Amino acid sequence: MKKIYPDAKSALDGLLFDGMTIAAGGFGLCGIPELLIAAIRDAGTKDLTVASNNAGVDDFGLGILLQTKQVKKMMSSYVGENAEFMRQYLSGELELEFNPQGTLAERMRAGGAGIPGFYTKTGVGTQIAEGKEHKDFDGETYILERGIVADISIVKAWKADDTGNLVFRKTARNFNPPAATCGKICICEVEEIVPRGSLDPDHIHLPGIYVHRLIEGQHEKRIEQRTTRKREDS
């Protein structure tokens, strides 16, 4: 099965449609599939539901899909770095399904593992629990969370071989593995595609069985917040 495509546009060909659900890897601007996000913007696909820890910043990452009003709903944990995200939510232009961070990761993992739902104590007694099934186990109350299954997942890895075995680099692994598994079709962008057999099997973070399409590209790797201090002369 040929998995390598020449660019993000061709890798998404035939997969995009209005109203679809997309699971996106990344945390802040770390490990985000920036090339695929840009290609979705250029395709003009709208009314999207996007499951992602956050929505990037105003002019980068998923933030560019908010700028073009292509996103209808976000399923996220954190929105604090994106002013347009907050503006659209507070003005009623954007639906938001808040998820505790671990719950969102587990919802993606569960969807990828074929688990329709699971019970967790996280969120009990808060707005997170409103409208959800409650159940007691051993005298403790839990709420039911549903697994996430997306139409496609878009993720970023460091290296891949031509079969789609993936290696992530340090903290850029973050949400990428669970996001990759919960998509019906997974598209991954990487910095380098290496020959088959050159990856140590013990170093592979995600088996190629989960990855359907691959692209190799150059990445900006923008820093979300740069904090410096004035140099002190000695």
UniProtKB/TrEMBL annotation:
This protein's record includes keyword Secreted: no
Database matches in InterPro entries: 3-oxoacid_CoA-transf_A, CoA_trans_fam_I, CoA_transf_BS, NagB/RpiA_transferase-like
Pfam family name, one: CoA_trans
Cited SMART domains: CoA_trans (SM00882)
Alphabetized GO MF terms: CoA-transferase activity
SUPFAM superfamilies, A to Z: NagB/RpiA/CoA transferase-like
Keywords: Transferase
Transmembrane segments: none
Family statement drawn from the similarity comment of this UniProt entry: Belongs to the 3-oxoacid CoA-transferase subunit A family.
NCBIfam families hit by this protein: pcaI_scoA_fam
Name the record gives this protein: CoA transferase subunit A
Species of origin: Qingshengfaniella alkalisoli
Top-level taxonomy: Bacteria, Pseudomonadati, Pseudomonadota, Alphaproteobacteria, Rhodobacterales
